[in-house]
Amino acid sequence: MALERTLSILKPDATRRNLTGKINARFEEAGLRIVAQKRAWLSQAQAEKFYEVHKARPFFGELVSFMISGPVVLQVLEGENAVTRNREIMGATDPSKAEPGTIRREFAESIEANSVHGSDSPENAAIEIAYFFAGTEIVG
Ligand code: RTP
Ligand code: MG
């Protein structure tokens, strides 16, 4: 199996509670390597474009407000089956439905403030990585 890459975001609820190291340890323990990482405070336009697929959903406005409410950490994770593997260790969107031991079950505050984002397909991972990172910023 070839190495795969996925885009990860540590969301504002995670940076606010100083949880970035604890969450990064989860990725590394699961065999995912952080091959790019930067802290950023997203603009409204950046967050709206990133979550464009959810534009028609009732939670879109709140989601964008939440994502720009504080700094985030943008990351590229690399490993075998990285997209699926990362979604497994993140757990379900709603932390009350996430499996015990997952990042969201352990750290998330709510269905919205759920600590992490992970790309949902290799195709979207490529688009999302290119949205935030130049090729030279990724060091595998
Ligand atoms: P993500 O894209 O952030 O990795 O999360 P996901 O695939 O598990 O969930 P998705 O359906 O793509 O939703 C994106 C983010 O929107 C917020 N959300 N709020 N209030 C609500 O009902 C609701 N539903 C989703 C969450 O922050 C979710 O991660
Ligand atoms: Mg999603």
UniProtKB/TrEMBL annotation:
BP terms from Gene Ontology: CTP biosynthetic process; GTP biosynthetic process; UTP biosynthetic process
Domain of life: Bacteria
Domain Nucleoside diphosphate kinase-like as annotated: residue spans: 3-140
Stored InterPro entries: NDK-like_dom, NDK-like_dom_sf, Nucleoside_diP_kinase, Nucleoside_diP_kinase_AS
Catalytic activity: a ribonucleoside 5'-diphosphate + ATP = a ribonucleoside 5'-triphosphate + ADP; a 2'-deoxyribonucleoside 5'-diphosphate + ATP = a 2'-deoxyribonucleoside 5'-triphosphate + ADP
Cofactor dependence: Mg(2+)
Binding site for ATP: K11, F59, R87, T93, R104, N114
Active-site residues from the entry: H117 (pros-phosphohistidine intermediate)
Record's GO cellular component terms: cytoplasm
Keywords: ATP-binding, Cytoplasm, Kinase, Magnesium, Metal-binding, Nucleotide metabolism, Nucleotide-binding, Phosphoprotein, Transferase
EC number: 2.7.4.6
SMART domains: NDK
Molecular function terms from GO: ATP binding; metal ion binding; nucleoside diphosphate kinase activity
Pfam families linked: NDK (PF00334)
Subcellular location: Cytoplasm
Subunit structure: Homotetramer.
Biological role: Major role in the synthesis of nucleoside triphosphates other than ATP. The ATP gamma phosphate is transferred to the NDP beta phosphate via a ping-pong mechanism, using a phosphorylated active-site intermediate.
Family according to the record: Belongs to the NDK family.
Record protein name field: Nucleoside diphosphate kinase
Organism the protein comes from: Elstera cyanobacteriorum
